[in-house]
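Section handout, structural biology tutorial.
Before the tutorial, make sure you can parse a SMILES string by hand: atoms, branches in parentheses, ring closures as digits. In the record below the ligand is zinc ion, and the chain has 374 residues. In the tutorial you will relate the predicted structure tokens back to the input. Do not try to memorize them.
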Amino acid sequence: MRIRAVVLHEPRSPLVLEEVELAPPGPQEVLVKVAAAGVCHSDVRLADGELGEGRWPMVLGHEGAGVVEAVGEGVTHVAPGDHVAFSIVPSCRRCEECRAGRLTLCLPAGEAGPRGVLMDGTSRLSLPDGTALQHALMTACFAERVVVAAAGAVPLPNALPLWQGALLGCGVVTGFGAVRNTARVAPGASAAVVGCGGVGLQVVAALRLAGAEPIVAIDRDRAKLELALARGATHGLEAGPATAGDVVRITGRGADYAFEVVGRPETIRLAWDCLRPGGTAVVVGLAPTGVDVSLPAIEFLSDKGIRGSYYGGGDALRDLPALAELALAGELDLAGVVTSVEPLEAVNGALDRLRRGEGARTVLLVDPDLAAYD
Ligand SMILES: [Zn+2]
Ligand SMILES: [Zn+2]
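Predicted structure of the complex:
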């Protein structure tokens, strides 16, 4: 079928909203009518060619939600009419990593994702001339419809407006999972959060719900610090040369945890410098391919640790519905991180704001009625 979709033809050139061809869902795949999509910094990394060569032409978008229209053979967990959010890691539940409980490290999903294909190694998207298009992070939801792997369509409660549910599958699950699954932050732990964009604000919210105290938010942008303070940060620091010293002063001896949610060597170093002896830095931010980070090696002597957290380190099929319930219960304010709501046509402007570090999340309304934005 013909759909309108946002295509990356060449890195560092404007994205084009145009008609493309979408093939029907195969076995273990789902066709979804997209309601809304969030714009994430990883979209900028892809659009700017920072995640390696050969990742275009591609239909962008990996954070979104919609309504199931059709299911392929063997799909039983969703049916037409169900509301779903997209998961960028449709774990197979059979490979070595999945069986060990490391679902976000699923081997076949990790193979297919960077190649821009679905789990069977092929694409459902093409240009009208037949040229194959890649699916961004196995999702490609800056589009009227998507075909995703079955496990990439996660059921949501109907009561949650889809423009809010759209945020769950990347920013929210990544931020909450880093706190709950990767770091397992206990009540009373102190924490610093470096970078308060769409994901960093979710880290702050998860820390508040985990009972962390103090929670020191750090960003270059005063407006984002205000959002962090509104979501439970106890302190907001404008990033500068004195920042790490300020965190050490506020927390006493340095933070138990420092979350890096930017993806730059200097912010990873800042997270490290905020730690107390024995503290742990958790790197959530996505750095461009080829970027190295250096740390003062003598400090490993103080038991400081650093580790990554990919896609929340949990189980999307369990975590996304739980986060949706948290939102419906009023414990998680999804709307509060949304700083712009715009039509799909506005995607280039939204990416430009992210490049400038302005604002938190933009939600693109693909089907305003389905999205239920008011
Ligand atoms: Zn993302
Ligand atoms: Zn697997």
